[in-house]
Amino acid sequence: MNTVKVLGLVLAFALCYECIPIQLEELGEDIEDHPIECQNIAGKDNMDTYHKRQDCEIVFRNEYVKWSEKMLADESFVKDLEVLNITEDNSNQSEGGISRPKRSAGSNECPVFNEEYLKNNKAWKQRSISPWTFFITYKANRVPQRMVDTRCLCDGCIDIRTLTEDVDNLISVRLPLTVPVTKNSKLTTEEVHLGCTCAVAITEDA
């Protein structure tokens, strides 16, 4: 077989490669190796299924997502949490500096740091000068559909001298973390929040 025929066969094979049925096993796919959330994902063909499962694996092997899934499975953790159905991403960051995040329209209020409160609230997220709480976000077109997030309980921060909220000089801001998710079957990222911290407020004159 001369060189021209060999090159012709190689070219023909390359052109027809997409036509050859590819089994997931040939791609090194082992369904049991995937997180359980990804094992039943199916695409329009084997290659599409393979890529969708790879995207799903990226999401569910993320440490924050794994922690969120663990906490959501804990009934004692989620029983009193608000579930927020989100249709659009809202940003609490303004261009040029930190803006004051909106306080939730719920029962969460900035606590009064009196003796009774400090006696009954031992968790450090409750005793922080920028206290915060958990809630759950839900998006129908997102995987995972439910995720744990946090919100600040105060607009300002607790003044350690007076144990009252200072809204004139300080603001509570959420600590962001970018995590992988899929939206409409496409791998992307989304911002969640680990908690809150205290920052000096930016004024228009600053």
Give a brief rundown of this model:
The chain has 206 residues and is α+β, with helices and mostly antiparallel strands. It has helices spanning 3-16, 46-60, 63-72, 75-78, 115-120, 124-127, and strands at residues 83-85, 93-94, 97-98, 132-138, 142-143, 146-152, 157-159, 164-166, 170-183, 186-200.
Q: What does this entry look like structurally?
A:
Strand 9 and strand 10 form a beta hairpin. The chain contains six helices and ten strands. It has two domains: 1-79, no CATH class; 82-206, Cystine Knot Cytokines, subunit B, CATH 2.10.90. The chain starts with a helix and ends in a 6-residue tail after the last strand. It is elongated. With 206 residues, it is α+β, with helices and mostly antiparallel strands. The strands form four sheets. The protein has a three-stranded mixed beta sheet.
Secondary-structure topology with pairs:
Elements: H1 3-16, H2 46-60, H3 63-72, H4 75-78, E1 83-85, E2 93-94, E3 97-98, H5 115-120, H6 124-127, E4 132-138, E5 142-143, E6 146-152, E7 157-159, E8 164-166, E9 170-183, E10 186-200
Parallel strand pairs: 1-4
Antiparallel strand pairs: 2-3, 4-6, 5-9, 7-8, 9-10
Count of helical stretches:
6
User: Terminal Cα separation, in Å?
Assistant: 80 Å
CATH class of the largest domain, named Mainly Beta
Task: State the shape.
Answer: elongated
- Percent strand equals 25-35%
Computed Rg: 25 Å
Strand order of the largest sheet: 1-4-6
Sheet with the most strands?
3 strands, mixed
Query: What's the CATH superfamily of the largest domain, by name?
Result: Cystine-knot cytokines
Q: Give the low-pLDDT segments.
A: 4-29, 90-107
Quick one: how many beta strands?
Answer: 10
Fraction of residues in H or I helices: 25-40%
What does the average pLDDT come to?
78
CATH topology of the largest domain, anyone? Cystine Knot Cytokines, subunit B
